[in-house]
Every structure is written in structure tokens, then in C-alpha cells.
Amino acid sequence: MRHEPFALLAAFVSLSRFEPLSPYRPLSPFVPLSSLGAARALARDGARDDSRKAYEELLRMWASADPDLPVLRQARDELARLSVVDTASR
Asked: For labeling, which of 6, 14, 79, 82 is most exposed (least CB within 10 Å)?
């Protein structure tokens, strides 16, 4: 269904911009995870460049986090697969 990724993306973007959380934003795992959700929704819809940017945003926000954190390993793997697809399509 074509509209499903856009509905998911809208939910993730609204979560990342939720203002009442702003004082706690650096502490909240939901903000980086919303970037991961957006990256996945964009990749599913074929918007690879925007998806790559969302993955890179997640990795930037959690640059000092434990590199073995499962969600970060998944994000790096998904970003790498996205890059491999782009390289193969050229």
C-alpha cells in the first residue's frame, strides 16, 4: 500500500518534533528512534536519499552511544544495504 509509509513517516516526524518533550530531548530515546522509523518508512517507499539522511541523523544523534547497541547495529546494516542498492543500480 503506497500511502502506508507516508502515514508512518508523518507519525515519526511528529514524534521527533513533540515540543513538550524538548527539555528532555537529549535524554529521550524516542527522538533518535523516530529518525530510524522515518528512515525505514522512506526506504520502504523508495526515497533512498531521504532515507539515508534519516539514518545518518540517527547515527549522528547517537554517535557517543554504545556502538554494539542492537538498534545501532541494525541501523548501520540497513544504511549499508541501502548504499549497496544505490551502488548496484548505477
From this structure: 14
- Rounded to a whole number of angstroms, the distance between the first and last alpha carbons of the chain is 27
**Rg, Å, the chain Cα set:** 13
- CA angle centred on 46, ends 36 and 41, rounded to 5°: 30
Total Cβ atoms within 10 A of residue 5: 18
Residues in CB range of 32: below 8 A, 6 or more apart: 58, 61, 62
Tens of pLDDT, residue by residue over 22-62, are 555 556 777 788 889 889 988 988 989 999 999 998 998 88
